[in-house]
Amino acid sequence: MNAAVTFDGLAKGDVVAEREHTLTRDSLVRYAGASGDFNPIHYRDDFAQSVGLPGVLAHGMLTMGVAGSLATDWLGTAGHVVDFQSRFTRPVPVDATAGAVLTVSATVGVLDEEARTARLDLKVTFDGATVLGKSQMVVAFA
What we know:
It is built from three helices and six strands; from the N terminus they run βαααβββββ. The chain is α+β, with helices and mostly antiparallel strands. The chain starts with 14 loop residues before the first strand and ends with a strand.
């Protein structure tokens, strides 16, 4: 949690957080159990390949959750989430050995002085390609 975050300290274009996050096959198993999404494309290479995929893919909502957690970790107790949305634009193949390294960043896109809200534009890339489109979180400050 970041108690130093304040609305008044933000400016449009500020990159407020960034990190790398590695998804592993174990991550996918844990997420499947938590979400109830046991589609075999998320854990069986043979099945994924039989439907034309390169191999096991990360759950889209897991990828979105990685992006959201970057923003909420940065926000801490300074505010709360008002809205969070994203489009899934590319799959994330998760190699059995190396996993999949996601690069995630949060940039201030819009500030609303009256409402004391900030729209954070979240960018998630894998292997040099953006995997979420129009991924945005609106946060409100006290």
